[in-house]
Design a protein that fits this description.
There is one protein chain. Helix content is 55%, strand content 8%. With 130 residues, it is mainly alpha-helical. A three-stranded antiparallel sheet has the order 1-2-3, with helices on one face. Helix 1 packs antiparallel against helix 3 and helix 3 packs antiparallel against helix 4. The longest helix has 26 residues. The protein starts with a helix and ends in a 15-residue tail after the last helix.
Amino acid sequence: MDLVEFLRDRLARDEQIAQACAGAPWKAAPSGTVNTDPSGGEDEAEPAFVATAENGAYAEHIARHDPSRTLREVAAARQIIDDYEKETWILAQGGRAPEVGAAHAARESVLRLLALPYAAHPAYQEEWRP
């Protein structure tokens, strides 16, 4: 498994989980509860319970990382990977302009950083560590 495949697999799983939880955005209450926020664009009449946290700060953290945010992060990371793969193809076709090579090296560094949050995954390879 290479770095691109590893990232695509992790992103697919993140997306799958987020889609299973998708709906209205999440909103934290000072009491430490997290509920869906019907005013966030969904047609739900009442907020739905998401979680209870130890305190308001924990609840806010949970709410800030709702499924819609995860889906946006997945989409952004996929675009970065797609750009990297396009440059890989250009380089393989002989497009060896210095600026293309430099951009490719920079994007590879970014891929390594994108993989870092998944370093505890059994398929992560230490050679990818930035």
